[in-house]
Amino acid sequence: MELVNQKIRLSYRNFYHCGISLNKVLPKRVSGNFVILLSALSYDRDVYLWFKKHCMEHFCSCSRQIQMLEEDEFIEPHTTYLAWKIIIARSEIVGIEDKGFDSIARSLFDFLLKVNDFLDDEDAKVKRNNRWQYIEHLYLDYYTDNVIAQFYRAQRIFIDSSNLKSFIANFESEISLCLKEYVYVIHRLLVRYGNLWEFYPGGIKNTDLLAYWKSNSGNIADGTNFNSETIEKVLSVISCKPDELKTFCNEHLFDGNIDFFRNYPFVQLSKDLYVPINDRLSQNLLFNNLFYKILDANKSSSGDFLSNYGKEFERYVYELALLINQSGNDKCIVQKEFTFKTTRKEGLNKSPDVMIVYPQTKQVIVFEVKSARILEKFNKSYSDKDSYEKSIEKTVFTPIVQSAKSITKIVENNATKLFDKSFRFVNVAVTMSAFAIPNYSVNVAEGTKERRHK
């Protein structure tokens, strides 16, 4: 397994040992093939590695440059987002002109290196005052949720749910599509991009890539029962034209705000020609972004939606836990939430949402499920410390401490025969999103958290 975020970011200054102005590497008018190639490199790491090899063979003038390309990276998520913003804000995307692959590839390579010059300058400012938030942003930008898992989640929580029917109906009315059609067309679209290397088993060629990467209603429909009208409707919901992005890109050129890209992760280059901005945002359409789209369609009843969604999310986690029990690999007992009384004069208490008990090894994995998410304010800015603290509170501290206190009460009051104080307990917070390495340690016994690094 390769760690993709452990290498040095390669910039124009350190690759060529000189500077260059933006207008020298980005003309006022760029070919559609220029952004199609950017899309492919941003989406598929295998395509990026293939392109990297091409750059080493054709664009390096000395062994030092070859070594830098071998060891360092010139594309990361921040590069992708800023590259798209600069192109849309500063240039006009014209038709699919055939200028020759090498000409387009060389122009894009130099442009991406220049984008990294800008990122180096901006990151130096950000890291001085907000080092930990910057690290968490890097993780969130690199993390890609599994496509199959998101598809399954959308099926079980949204499509199969009876409790969310009225909220789903509002969303369907807004987009003039059945939810199942919306999800299945997107899944088909993502499968198409995932099959690129199967489509060209003998190795991809330059012209093949540019031709294959463009999506339209015709090639999405191939081998399916979807009609072109349905596919075009879905594409209209998840994409936008460069002109519609211009204002956003100009206003948020160098900050961490990618809201527009999240909601419209496909760019419409012409009447029936679309390309993805990158893999993560496109794949999130299946579930993570779908959640927000349904929430937005139910603004007047958002509280009810979130309450019902929370119950469905808990049910989904419990179903997954049952699969462990059904696999037969481990002798365990899956216990869902139950109520119990204590010796104190208080009402009924609730157990954690899901507990997987291993009697033979005397271990319990305790799951507290919350439909909590990292706050949008944090996603939009590298420097909002308050939203970082509140996100830690919601996604880590509150569920972990809640489940630990509940287990303590269960053990003290002998509220179950499944386990006692001799068991070892592992507390897990299951949330919609979370930080990789939150800058806090949680003292479960005292219900406090402490910052690890200043």
> What separation lies between the terminal Cα atoms?
32 Å
Number of domains: 3
Q: What is the number of helical segments per DSSP (H or I, 4+ residues)?
A: 22
Largest sheet: 4 strands, mixed
Any low-confidence stretches, pLDDT <50, length ≥5? none
What is the tally of beta strands? 13
Residues in β-strands, percent:
5-15%
Strands in their spatial order, largest beta sheet: 6-9-10-11
CA-based shape = globular
Task: Round the Cα radius of gyration to an integer and report it.
Answer: 25 Å
Helix content: 55-70%
Main features:
56% helix, four-stranded mixed beta sheet, 22 helices, 454 residues, 3 domains
Give your account of this protein's structure.
By secondary structure, the protein is α/β, with parallel strands linked by helices. The chain folds into three domains: 12-142, no CATH class; 147-247 and 257-296, no CATH class; 327-451, no CATH class. The chain contains 22 helices and 13 strands. It has helices spanning 12-16, 22-25, 32-43, 45-58, 63-71, 77-90, 101-129, 131-142, 147-159, 165-175, 179-194, 196-199, 206-213, 217-221, 228-238, 242-251, 259-263, 279-283, 288-296, 302-327, 376-380, 385-412, and strands at residues 29-30, 92-93, 239-240, 266-270, 273-276, 333-336, 339-340, 349-350, 354-358, 363-369, 424-430, 440-443, 448-451. A four-stranded mixed sheet has the order 6-9-10-11. A three-stranded mixed sheet has the order 3-4-5. A two-stranded parallel ribbon has the order 1-2. A hairpin with an 8-residue loop joins strand 7 (339-340) and strand 8 (349-350). It is globular.
